Every structure is written in C-alpha cells, then in structure tokens.
Batch of 3 targets.
Target 1
Amino acid sequence: MTRVPTPAEPASPPHNAAASAPDSVPSSRVAKRSLSRRFLNRPEVGSLMGAVAVFVLFMAIAEPFRSLDAFTTVLYASSTIGIMAVAVSLLMIGGEFDLSAGVGVVTSALAAAMFAFQFSTNVWIGVAVALALSLTIGFVNGLIVVKTKLPSFLVTLAMFMMLQGLNLAVTRAVTGSVSTQSIANMDGFGSAQAIFATNVSIGEFSVRITVLWWILFVALATWILLRTKVGNWIYAAGGNPDAARAVGVPVNFTKIGLFMSVGFMAWFVGMHQLFRFNTVQSGEGVGNELLFIAACVIGGCALMGGWGTAIGAAIGALIFGMTRMGIVFAGWNADLFMFFIGATLLVATVLNLWVRLRTARR
Amino acid sequence: MPETTSNIIELAGVGKNFGNIHALSDVSISVRSSEVSCILGDNGAGKSTLIKIISGLHQHSTGTYKVDGKAVKFASPRDALDRGIATVYQDLALVPLMPVWRNFFLGSELTSGFWPFRKLRAEEMRTTADAELRQMGIQVPDINQQVNTLSGGQRQVLAIARAIHFGARVLILDEPTAALGVKQAGVVLKYISAARDAGLGVIFITHNPHHAFMVGDHFTILKQGTVDLSAPRAELTLDDLTHHMAGGAELEALEHELSRMEAPDVGAVHELHEHRMGETK
C-alpha cells in the first residue's frame, strides 16, 4: 500500500526528479553492452563458430579436404540442403514447420518427369506443372494451418505421409516401376539442364550452378527479412502473432506465403535432381525435411519462431556439406554421417542457448 | 490548458446488455482534448465493457455515443482508429524479440520504390521512432535493441508513443500501471500527463485511486455497471476518491458490523477503526 502523502500537483507529477531517474539508471546499465556482446547476440554466431570448428577439424585430419576441388564439392553438397533451408528458415522464423518439404522435392520432380514423358511435351511444360503442384501443396499446408490453427507439425506430418504414399503409388501406376523414365533426350532438356543443373566455370574453378542459386536465394531472403515490410511481418508473425494482428499485419497471408515459398524451393531442388540424374526415384526424400530443420536450428533459428536469419541457415547447411564430404575425405565410415550431424546439432543448440543466456541479460 | 474545446467523445446514457444481463446501464462520460478522464471501479464494475464500446469492439445497446458531435456505432476497432480513438491494451501488442523501431512501425511500415523492389526506409524509421520516443521523454539507449530488454514502463510508453504517432486524438489506456512497480508506474503516469499536455484526450482506466488522482481531471467511478460518482477534480479530494473506490458507505457498514461482532475482544479492530477515522480527517 503506497500512500501518497500530499496529492501532487496534477499537471506536473515529479517531472524531472522521480521520472528521469528510472530512465537514466537502466540506460547507464544497458550502455555496457559492448560491440562484442552485440555480435555474440546475433543468431548466426553459434553456427559460425561451429562451421569454423568443423572446417579446422577436417583441414587438419583430411589431406584431400585441402584442395580447391574438394571445396567445390563441399559447396555443392551444401547447396542442395541450403536452398531448401533458405525457405525453411523463413518459415521457422514465421513460427511454423514443414515436415513435407523433404518428400515435396521428390513429388515435384516426379510430377515434372511423368507429365512431360507421358504427354510427350516439351520438358518445360512438365517443369511448369511441377511448379504449380508444389505451390499448391504449400498453399494447402498453409491454408489448413491458418484456418484450423492446428500445429503445423501435425498438418505437415500428415501431408508428408500422404505425399510419400502418393509418390510411390502414382509412380508405380504410371510407369510400372519405382522410378521415372529418363527424359534426357526430350525437347527442352538441354535448356532446363542449363538452368537447374549445369556446371559453371569461374576462372579455373568449376562449380555446380546450384551453388550460385543458393547464394542468390540467401541474399534475396536476407534482403526480404531485413529490408522489406514482408520481412517485418515474418518476424512479427512468429514472435507474437496476436500483437501482429492487432497492429494490422496480415498474419495469415504471411504464413501461407511462407509455406508456398517452401513449395517453390522444393520445386527448384526437385528440378535440379531431375535434370542432373534424368530420372527420379519415387522413394527418395524421406528424412530430408529433418535435415533442413536441423540446418536452420544449427543456424540459430528458434523452434518457436520469431528469431533467426537466412544466413544462419546457410551456415548450418555449410556445416552439413563439410561434414558429409569431410567424412569421405578423411576415409571414415560414411555411415557415421548421421552421427556427426546429430552431435553437431546438439552442440550447436547448447552453444546457441549458452551464448544467448550470456548476452541477452544485459 | 490551451482552450476548453468541445467534447471529442461523448457518451450519454449508454447501456449494454448481454442477453438478460445488464453489464452497463445509463453511463455518461465525455472526453475533451487536453483532459485526462479517469474511470475507476472494482473488478466486474463494467470498466472493460465500457472501453470495448468506446474502442469499437462492442456496440452499445442503449443511449448515444457521439464522436465530434456525431452519433456513431462502430463496427470494428478499425472504425474507432480511423477517428483517432486508439486503445493501448494491457498486453500492448508488441513483439518482444524485434527491435524497438521495427515494433514502432509494425503494420504501418514506411517504404519506397515499387513492388518487387519496394524496400523499407529503415534509416528514416529509426530516426522517427527515436525522435518520437524522445519527445515523449524516454530515451532508449539503442533504438535497435529488442523490446524484451525494455522495462515494463518503457514498453508501456513505447505503445503509447506509437498510438500518438499514428494519429490518435483520444488514448484509451487499459490499466497501464496495474502490473508495474512504484517507480515504473510513476514513469507511465508522467507520460500520461505528457500526452495530455500534447493535446490528447486520455481515458485512463485503473483501480488505483492514487494513480488516478495524480493525473486525472475528471473522475468516474463505476459500480455494478452504473455510475457511482462522476466529478471534476475541483470537487474531490484524494480521500473522497479512495473512500468511494473502497466501497464507501458499504465499507463503513461492514466496519461497523465487524466492530460490533468483535466487541468483547476490543483490540485490533478498534484501533483500526480509530486509525481510519483519524486519517480521513
């Protein structure tokens, strides 16, 4: 019970005395946050330290890892996970998951291959059909999540299983086998391959085009997150959807858009696989959705949303690429890949948590 | 105070029924610019129903609600906002993990360029948010810091500054000091009077008569959905207000009853009684 001894002058409650004190006290306390602390509070920092550690480890123990060729291989291995991780990280920042992303890649590739082959069209028609299908899957995921308010974990888990079943069943029904026929000599294959799966030489250094696409997509996603209205909406939709709605942010629109961008990236990676290998195995892709999520989490995206960056997810994907190829170059048993990824995930999340606890409190 | 302008908001005989329950009946209040109108009341007195009517979440069942002299019936909070009536709710509608300036402009971002390349005018938003907050008298050490590093009072002020910047003429503050410590509540009260001095009409909902008396120009006490007391500052003392808020006559009766019941055991209650009597004089 706080008694006010004499009712203060109404127009001028303790203007300077009482009120400026609580202001100046925290400001002098907060000012201590040094530049290094602010740097440590970036979401990517844990993953950056992890990436450096993994890099140093394999540089030290694996002779072949040190060549430029090995580096391009690592970049390629990172890019196929990294392109998906771009969209998955945006979705996670927006507060949702997509477990159907892994098989969604295969669904898209199967659709393009089978449509073009069965109807004997130019492969670009198949590519367009696959794009429409992938965007529709994303839209349906998003619509169900925002309309029912069910956790996206459940909705996309259901979508994951349905797509997995359809991939197998439809492929067998259409082609009579578990994979699609080769489309390598159909119209438009060459130009599509040039877009999705060619090698690009930069100087003496030849790299798969997916690496360049990956860098482009990361840059684009970073620009969207930090410099556009939509980026603001994504952080707000994940951080506090009710508050976002109250100030006029179209939260449902944003979330559906994020699911569709995951669909778009699934289509892109699907097209890469199709035009690199000419055929698609219908049973592939299962389990990859968790790798995408793991890359994002290693890169500092919060599971509950509202926190993370696309660059962090890219570093997470790079850790995957380095580990996958590093194990091979070091001559270890490749079966250990998953073990190392698991260990990295655990260390990275603990490190992120520790860094955040150390720095978030002023 | 510059001028005695006409009422921005005027409610006359407003009532609200939910089915056969009369949540509010015959409530009349008005708010002018540069005036803080306090609405006090115990839990269940009808305070929240009243704010919801004023802010457009509910529609009144009886009486008239006039804004700038014209009778209105709002279909949504957007209608109220368009007329400059902004509500700062207890949860404040802030996103804790986002920087201060992004929160300030959330949902009303400034952009330039055309569609695929339309980008935020980030620097302008930072400086505007910083200037607006300074004008309200709070200085955040870093406009880029996350909202969750601000104190409760600073967050409250951020929400108020945002409402003012986006064109509020009347601010409805729902229990802004309820969850705050003494100092933080003082900070918020200071900004309420700053908003009043900037020419806004403020409706300050609270159940704390001390806080109300420090900034209020007019006091309305609600009790069980009706107006128990409506008086300008000049006709009241803090003790009157506290007395009314605490239940006034009812409390006296209760006190009387208690003192009679425990008569044989004199002690505590008697002392309390004398103490209170002494205080009110």
Target 2
Amino acid sequence: MPTSAGNPDPIGADADEALRTRRDHEAIAHLADELLPALIAKLAASGLGEIEVHEGGWKARLRKPAVAHDARPSTARTSEAHVASGPAAGRGSGPRPEERDRRPRPAEEPSEEPGRIAAKSPAVGVYHPRRDLVVGMRVRTGDKIGTVDVLGVKQDVVAPVDGVIGSSLAEAGEAVEYGQDLVRIELPEHTPVDPAGRPAREPAPVAGRA
Amino acid sequence: MLSKVLIANRGEIALRVLRACRTLGIGAVVAYSEADRDSLAAQLADEAICIGPADARHSYLSAPAIISAAVVTGCDAVHPGYGFLSEDEGFAEVVRAHDLTFIGPSAEVLERFASKEATRRILAAHGLPTIPGSGMLRDESHALDEADRIGYPVLIKPSAGGGGKGMRLVRTPRELESTLKVSRSEAMAGFGDDSLYLEKYLDDNRHVEIQVAIDRFGNAIHMGERDCSVQRRHQKIIEETPSPALSDAARKELAERALKAVSAAGYENLGTLEFLVDGKGDAYFIEINNRIQVEHPITELCTGIDLVALQIKIAAGEPLGMTQADVVSRGHAIEFRIMAEDPAKDFRPQAGQIVAYLAPGGPGVRMDSHIYPGYEIPPYYDSLLGKLCVWAPDRPGAIARGDAALRELLVDGVTTNIELHRAILANQIFIDGKVTTNLLDRVGSAPFVAAGTR
C-alpha cells in the first residue's frame, strides 16, 4: 500500500477509510500548493507536451491539452496561449518551435493508462458527435460515437473499449486530425483500474496514486 | 499569389518546400503521417496536421486525406514534393476540383506526358532524338535489315513487356538469328504476345538531364543540365553540373533543343528532360520528370535561382519574371545523396536513431537534411537522410570541397554511405569525369570502398 510522501502511516494498511481519505487530501494539497506550480513553470519553459513526476507513493502528471477546453486547471494558464482549438483554428499563430505545444501522441498516451482511454479520429476532417451523445452514457467496444467528415464521406468514430462516455475533447464541427482524441471513455466504476485497486475518478488527472 | 500551401510530403523535401514558402511569405501546413510526428518539417512548421498512419497508402498516397487536410486548414494550394502523388494526374485533377492549386503541371499536362512511349513520340515529333529502334519485326530477314540500319549492339524487346522484362542483348547478326526464335516463344509464354521490336543498346552511357521552367504565358527558360551518371541499380548517388561528358557548345545546344521541343509540346511548370548520352556525345531523349527533383539544389547553386519558389510562382499563375538571358550558370556543383544504407551489406536500408549529427560548413557548402540528434528514422519510407551539395568556381575545386565536407559530416547511430562517396570522389574515373551509369554495377561498390580507405 503506498503512502503519501514524507508522511508514513503508523497504523498500517488497515487504517480506517476516514484517516486515509484525510491523508490523501493532505497529500493532494501539498502537490497542488508546492509541486504543481513548479511543474507548470517547467512545462511552460520546456516545450514538452507532458511531464510526470514521482514523489513517494504519488505521481503527478501534467499534459498540455490538444484543445483549449480540455485544459485542466493546472495547465490552462500555460497552454492556452499556445494552443488553439485544433488544426482549423490553426497552430499557425506563430509560436516559436521550441516553445510551441508539442502535439499530443494519440497513439500512445491515453491508452497506456487504464481509465483514461479516448475514442480517436479515424481521419483528418470535420468531427460530428452523435446527437444523443451524453456524458455518462454506456458504450460497448465498436459502438458509433460520431463521425468525421472527409470531403463529404463520413467515417465512423467508435468506442475503443466498453465504458462510459466522459468529457468531450473536440467540439461538433471542429476540424480534427488523424488519431486525435475526441471523446474520453471512462471505464465502468466496478472495474479495478490501478494497482491500488481503486477505480479512476473524474478528478484523477492531476494527481493519483501510483 | 497563393496564401497557404499544404506540404504533402516528408523528409528533406518537406523542409525544402517549407523554406521556399517562408521565403515567399506564404503560409505552410506540413501534412505528416503518424510515423513522422517527430520529423523536423512537422516540428519547424507553424502548422502541422496528421493525415494518417505510417502506411503511405493511407497518408502520403491518400488523395482524400491530403485534400481534406488542405481544406480544413484553409490552404489554397498543395505541394506534392517528389515521389508519392507528385506526378499523378488523377490527384492533380482532384486537387483542382476542390478549388486548390496543384503545385506542378496541370492534370492535362501530366496526362499527356504520363506514358514514356507516348512522350517519346510527342517529343520526337518536336525534333528530339530518341533511341533508334525498329517497328514490329515481321520475320528474320526484316529483323536483320533493321538491326543493320540501327547498328549493333541491339536489344530485342517484347512489345507487351515492360520494366526490362524479356529483353535480350545481341551484338552480331548471328546472335540475332539464333536469339530471335527464343525471344518469340518467351514473349508468347510470358506476355501472351510474340511481337518483338529492336532498340539500339547504348553500352556506356551517361545520364544527362535538362532543367526547364515554363509559365502559362509561354515564357520558357532552361537552367542547363545535370549529370547523374553515378548510379547504382538505376538509383542516382552523385549528381553534378555542368556535365563533364559534354562540351560547352554541346551542352548549350542540347538544352536549347530540349526547351524548344518541350515548349512546343505544350509543357508547363518546372520539368526535367532526361537523356542518355553515348560515347560519341550523341544524346537520346528518354523521359520527362514533371516535378521538382531530388538533385535540384546543384542547379540552384550554379544559377542562384530558387527552383521551388519558381515552381510555386508558376503554379500560382505568375510569369517567370526572367528571360533566358537572365539565367547565368557559374562554377561547378556536386550533390551527394546521404543514405541510411550499408554498402557492405548490399546497401540494405538502415533504421534506428540518429545519435549524433553534425552538418558540414564552409564556403559553397549546403546541407539539405531533416535529421537531428535523437531523430528516429522510421522504417517505412526511403533511406535518404539528406543531400550534401558543394559549389566551387571549377570542378576540381568542387571535388576538393566535397571531400572536405564529407570528412566533416558526422552521422552517428546508423550506417551510411558517406565513405562510399569519398571513395568515388577519390577514384580516377570520377576525377576524369568518365563515369557511366553502369560503372558501379559492373565493378561493384566494394572495390571503390576498399580503394578509398587505403
């Protein structure tokens, strides 16, 4: 059982849930107040797309989002200046290459992490989600989530896994590139998704148990 | 003028086109496959868009993906680079149908010059010499008469064949007599058609090509020739200009004839006419390349003309803005194609990571390359790492600068052909300007490398 950094748990693995939750909150507060500001500055200066830091039993991962509304509070300030909403809006506003947002690596990152899977664009074109698509909707592998219009020919966007529709990463009518993450798919609540056996939760992106 | 160009290619040429766009003050979007996400062009571009997976059929060869990318990024033109869809008239047509400018000849021009055989007929009709040949052979005595007229050695070629299949070389009438029957039955068995014809065989030929540019107003210029005789299995390795095979008068005459014929035949945009030059200095037209070519920088070094910028301007409908009198070629330039290939292992392409890279410098040295330290060479595409080009006032000077630059060039992490280049430069046949297209294949590259490392 991992413990929060610099704060060994005297009671051990069988500590009651309330105490553990309080410790978690303290650790998250420490990360948010001290570690994250330093990481944000580093990420902004580096031109990297993502930074991950391990400290004690915790890890913090910061990623510059592909689209502005995907920006999580921790990264929004540093990334919004550089990142417009997709290729149509243009990354062409002229940032220097070294300070520019590195494009996300749709083929790799999200799918590596259980509970953080996204349905991807099958082609370069204009994205249209299914009309009835709502957060919380259950989908099965291969279910159609929307389409990408390639010169008038629609290509299906499908769920890569069984799960629940999470946040949208692209707007209806937005130009998207091949492999771009379009809709987050959360794994069902009861599925164990990390070594600690805890399901991924919505606030998980910034800090979570390693 | 155009406002924004989609660059539908990869590697060094994507970077080259990006540079031309920036020079012209035109926006550019680099279209890349998933395997090229880390490519230098995608990184340096103000805007880049992933158009498909590593498999070129679904990215660099996919017209819908490329055109969709151009449309959603607000481009008004597409530059196809070389290879891939650069000479595909169907692609050029679809680009135009989406109100985009294809940076290259129009679909009609591409179609007209798509077939080698038809192109030869068209340009022969406009006065270019083509390789002498016969009509279809009726019988043995007809074949012997035709061979006498053409002059031995001759190639017996099946009419239905292609790509060198079923060809036989004969050097005497006796050989012709004995081979004819075999060739007929082979052609019948191989292609279901026993029609044969003869073509003159050029033993020791040189590959010389003429660079032309023609705008839609009929203004036409040539920019001299390039000699691409250092080849291995029909792949060019070293190119130079001017050609050491031709006198100044012969070069000028060939370029002028080529330009006149291709203009009269209705060509438009940048193009290259390829010739085989025999031992006597007679040139025979073989084909047109309707695109920017890999070896274009040596022409740029000698003329000072930015060929890619010129190509973009012509496609945009602008006049050339210069006449033949403005084209002045100075000095001598050589290009070395730096390949990730292992000459010791039958030139097997190498994939892997570039650990260290240092481009050479100094007067008259130009390196067009998309590699950088840490760059992972994707295994899906060709093995060209870059082009080292040198210029000097004369040929010996260019050879000396070439060798100095090759010694300076550092590419660590993959095996390259840099040492082969140095060995060729040091070879007396090259120094004498007498390399023919079959030399490396005949001798093998091992003796060159062995001699060069002594």
Target 3
Amino acid sequence: MLDVTILLDGVAYGMVLFIISVGLTVTMGLMRIVNLAHGAFAMIGGYLATTLLSAGLPFFAAALLAAAVVGIVGAFAELTIYRPLYRKGELAQALMTFGFTFVVIAALTTVFGTGIRPLPVPPVLSGVVDIGFRTYPTYRLFLVAVGLVLAVLLWLLIDRTSYGARLRAAVDNPRMARAVGINVNLLFTVTFAGGCALAAFGCVIGADLLPLEPYYALRYLVLFLVVVGVGGIGNFKGSFVAAIALGIIDTGGKFLLPQAAAYLFYGAVIILLLLRPHGLMPAKSAA
Amino acid sequence: MSEPLADKGLAAVAPSLRLPSAWHLLPWALALLFYFTAGGYLSLGTHVLIMILFALSLDLALGQAGIITLGHAALFGFGAYAAGIFAAHLSNDPLLGLAVATVLTGLFGALVGMLILHTAGVTLMMLTLAISALLAEIANQAHGLTGGDDGLQVGRMAPLFGLFRFDLWGHTAYLYVLAVLFLWSLVAWRIMRSPFGRSLDGIRQNPRRMRAIGTPVWRRLVVAYGLSAAMAGTAGALEAQTTRAVGLGALSVLASGTVLVMLILGGTRRYYGAFLGASVYVVVQNFAAQIDPFRWMFIIGILLMAVVLFLENGLMGLADVVRRALLAVQRRSGG
C-alpha cells in the first residue's frame, strides 16, 4: 500500500501549505496587494515558538501563543507598512514587502543566530498509529486533522457568518462594500492579522516538513505564492484544492520519480498558470 | 532630443534624453579613469560593469515595457551556463562564446515570452518565479553538464582577437566588458528613442488602449523580452568568462531580487539609473558584506523600503529633486 502512504504524506504536506498560504490569498485577493512578506510573518512565528519552547512552554501553547503574537505584529504591520501601499503599483508593493522580508530575516538572524532552529515534534505526536493495513506517523495524521478542522472552520466563518459576508463583499467590490457601510479598513486589519497568525501557526506545526532556517521566508515564498496563484487569488476553496493537489504532486514526485520531482512540480505550476491564468477557481470579482 | 514630447506621460519617461550630449561621455570617462586608478579593485569594477548591463536589460523589460518579472536571473544564469558549457566543450574563444550565449538566451527569452506574456500582473510574476525555479532545478540535476551545486569551472579564455590575453589582474577582462557594455548601451539608447520603444512606453501605461489603436501588444512584448533576455544573457556570459565560474546562485530568486534592487535604487526608465544603481549597490555591498551578510540584508531591506516610500524615482529621482531645488533658489535670487 505504498501509494496510500504517498497520498497521505502528500495530503499532510498540502495541509501545511494550505494553513500557511490561506492568509496570503486573503491579502492578495482582498487588499489587492502583492505581498511577498507572508513567509516573513510565518517565520517570526516559528522563531518565537522555539524561544517559548525552550522557556518550558508546552508545544501547543507555544504554537498558539506564537500565532497570537504574530497576529498582533501583523495588525501593526498592516496599519504602518501596508496602508501606504494600497494606492501604489504592483512593483512598489513587491519591492516594499520584499524589503520588509529582508529586514525580518536580518533581525531574526541577529537575535537567534544563523543556524537551523529545531522545532521538535512533541512526544504525543512522535509515535505511530495503526490505520488498519499499516502504521502511520501520528504527526502527519495530526497535520491532516488540523488542516481539515481549520478548513471547515474557515469555510463556516466565510460562508456562514456576517463577518464572512462582509469579507466576500469587500473582495468582490471594495467600493460598493464601503458604500453600504462596511468598515473595510477594519476588515483589512483584522483579516490581515488573522492570516498572519495562521501562517505563524502553520509554520510552527509544519516545521518538520518545512524546516525553520534563516532563509525560510524566501525559500518557501515561491511555494506559498504558487498555492495562491494556482488556486485563484482570493479564493479559499481554490487555495485548499491547490495546496492539496500540489502537496500530492510534490510528494508523489519525490517518492516515485526522485530525479524529476522538481520539474514535475514547477512544470505542473507553469502549465496550470498558462492554461488558467487566474487560477483553478478565480474569485468572482466585479471589478 | 529636438522634437517636443506632446504627451505628459512620455515627457516624464525620459528626462535624461534632454541632457546635453557632452554629459554622456562622463560615465565612460569615469570608467576609463577607473581602469587606470583601480589597482586591486579592477575585478570589482568588472563586476560593476556586468551588473550595469544586467540592470539595463531589466530596465528594458520592466522599466520600459512594464513586464513585471521576479525571475530575471533565469536569463542571466542561462547566458552564464551557455557560455560556460560552450567554453568547456566547444571553443574557448571569448567572442564566439559571447555571441552564442547572447543569441541562445535571446531565443530562449523570446520563446518563454511567447508563452508567458499573454498573462500580466501577479500571474506573470509567479510564472517568472516558477520558470527561474525550474531552470535552477535543471541546472542542479544536470550534474554532468553544469556541475550541479559544485558549480561549473570555466577554463581560461583564449586571447581576445587572438591578441590580448586575459591576464591575472583582469586588465583585458575590464576593457572587454566595458566595450561590450558600451555596444549594448548604444543599442539600449537606440531602442529607447525608437518608435518601438515609444510603443513599449504606451503598452506599459495602457495596454488596452494600445491594443485598441492597433498595436500588436503581445508581439511587441515578446520582442522586448527577447531583447532584454539577450542583453541579460550577455551579462551572464561575461560573468562566466571573467570569473571563470558559474554557480547555481546565478539563477536564484535572490539574484533576481538583487538586480531589481539595483535598478529601482538607481531609478527605472532613466537610462543612467541602471548605471548608478548597480555601481552604488555593488560597491556598498562589497564593503558591507565583508562585515556580515545578514547585516547586508538589513541594509538592502531598509534601502528598498525607503526607496518605495520616499524616493519613487530612485537615486536619479534624487538628482531631479536637487536640480529643481537649485532652480527654485536661482529663480528666487534672480527675480
């Protein structure tokens, strides 16, 4: 049953990609801004969690606390760094957020040093579980479960709450949303903070698959952007599907065709983007 | 520049076109002066010249045609590997290798451009990123041809024109690179002033309108991208020939980011923006990175953010601000 294992591995990897990238699809879809600093926020969370862990906090408390702090940092960044960017061109946005990423990397390495930061899997998750026909690492099943729970919660939040309705309105037509009295600015700040917090959380719990290191924010940025772009910018379900699909393609490639895995991954991305320039599921936009 | 520029957008495009022509000798005079006074820094100077050419190529694609790319290093790296592999297996004649690398990269760029230039904005950025990641992976895997992550060692080049040997101190290399940069900068200058260049300006500002008035937008963009690729390929080939090594770093996202920083720092669409930005960047980096590469990232990050927030036209824009201030002072004291 090798293929089922590969599939599960791929799904677990895809879930991590989804948790980290979902905030990015919001920034890029809702705020219409090219955000190259998303990995930087994830990375801040990861480094923070390593400190909290070594201070004696349990793994999950550290992950949640790190996510909360990064959420606050994200809200602050949105108010100070991102606000002036909304009216600028894509290039200015790309450069500004790229510059911010550099600063974050430099600051983190100054404080924490330049080595790989270990984020060990807690003992509860480090064993294996019997899943009928074979045993499987608990950690990866945990990732799948967390990803699924978060996906359902996000779907409920976006599809079933008044916050979600306002968010969707603002994605589809920000001017109209403002005109009917939605506080789009507040919506931006809150949503941005939430996306950053999720990225930090995903970085911490996914650190076994995407190891935390000084160039984390740049190395995996392409991956996060690809999930968002392939899924359709501003579309949560699209991001979910894209993250899982790319996770399976990448993992499957590495197992079955180790020589060609990277070609397979980027080849698939290029072909998808060429065939569907607006992603698998383009967000409905009135603009 | 004798004819008046009717459109305000165009007038804003290239103020340097109005410089008195004698000024254009200044950068080249400085470059020659540097040759005689550089001493041990000559190879650093060669690197500056190569980066100027690379930034100039980006200015054509990004500054003029508005092709927002995050993967320009793919083209630089392509040229570098083409020249390196050509030298290792076929001939170590520098000019032949340079020509082959330039043409191949240009064709590659045009081919890639045909595929990706139907898209724009974020999709285009991601495609350029993905293509450079794909190329880096190919170079990494094709160990036999490229040396993988050990890098490719390039043998010593044959003497230029069979006469001038590439000496240990880099005298020949510097003048060789300077001459190639001069030729390409003439081409770039010509493109900028040509109707073709003007149509690129139009496409950057409003592609829909250009299409409506009958410009074959996609074809123009492909040609621009191909030309830019050829120029970047030349820069990569020069790097391979003069440093006699090619590494995977030449294809990296960081390299694409670096050249963007150089260009933006100097100022896009200013022609001399690429010259100024690349010079300042490489020189500052050379001294700052000796301290600590991460502190260097800090400086570059702050510079990027500052340029976006306060100095939208780069250092060349700063020159404009100073000039305007001087004019204002002059007017006040005069009248």
